[in-house]
Write a structure and sequence with these properties.
Distance between the termini: 85 Å
Helix content: 55-70%
Structural class: alpha+beta
Largest sheet: 5 strands, antiparallel
Oligomer: single chain
Number of domains: 3
């Protein structure tokens, strides 16, 4: 262990007091303590010090420090632009900005956009998140990476279809029309994730989708049938196991064979 000088001890006491105040001073104080290693007289590392003294996790500490840095970037941007926009009041409001790894100028521009969304008031977390997404789409237009016939997974944006696989039916500028076993949707490229299948595996998925669609078209399915199909729509592999295949065949025998007869 090291021995801190009287000046270092005094500085640490001051900084520890700041940590217990607002989020900007907290992040700034934590960064200074870390840089100057003002914990070294009692702890071997910064993480142990923060856990013991403040009860902070490293994730929270990192967010505090980067939030303070982002706050000062926004403050400097507003000053240089001669703007009187309100400044952030909570760490969470800044999270979408620093998670997007924006430059200092971009951080300022996004904050101003978020304030505009909030009609001149301090924007909420969701408003800042919307501003970040809008800003990035405007500055860096999305290039649609998908192709017709590709198998993808819906990651968000479609109610009731989270993590369901689908087939790209048509490609637009920043959206795709996708087919699921029971419906068709328009989905943003940001809400789709490609599934890495070979050509043969993709054919197997298309065949499975066709069988599932055929069941959906015979009429009203009971809850048990829907339960099986809703399980199959979230598969992350192209081949059914023996139980899945038997369940699907039972449904086909019951609904489709009876319908044909």
């Amino acid at each position: 262990m090291y021995v801190l000088s009287p000046q270092e001890l005094q500085l640490r006491d001051k900084l520890e007091h700041q940590v217990r105040t607002g989020f900007v001073l907290r992040g700034q104080a934590l960064r200074t303590i870390k840089q100057l290693k003002l914990y070294r007289d009692r702890f071997d590392n910064f993480e142990s010090y923060c856990d013991e003294v403040f009860g902070f996790t490293m994730l929270y500490i990192e967010r505090c420090m980067i939030a303070a840095e982002t706050y000062y970037q926004i403050e400097e941007y507003l000053k240089t632009q001669g703007l009187n926009d309100p400044k952030p009041t909570k760490q969470k409001q800044l999270r979408p900005i620093f998670q997007a790894h924006l430059s200092p100028i971009e951080a300022g521009e996004v904050w101003v956009m978020a304030v505009g969304i909030a009609l001149g008031q301090v924007p909420s977390y969701s408003m800042v998140k919307t501003a970040v997404k809008t800003y990035l789409h405007q500055k860096y237009p999305t290039i649609n990476p998908f192709v017709q016939g590709q198998i993808c997974r819906i990651t968000s944006g479609v109610s009731g279809k989270l993590n369901c696989w689908c087939v790209i039916s048509s490609v637009r500028k920043d959206k795709c029309i996708v087919d699921t076993w029971d419906s068709q949707y328009v989905v943003s490229v940001d809400d789709l994730s490609p599934m890495k299948f070979t050509r043969d595996q993709s054919e197997q998925m298309l065949d499975l989708g066709g069988r599932m669609t055929a069941l959906s078209e015979v009429g009203e399915l009971d809850e048990a049938a829907k339960w099986v199909l809703k399980g199959l729509e979230k598969l992350n592999r192209s081949q059914l196991n023996s139980i899945e295949e038997k369940l699907l065949q039972v449904l086909e025998d019951f609904y489709i064979s009876h319908d044909v007869e």
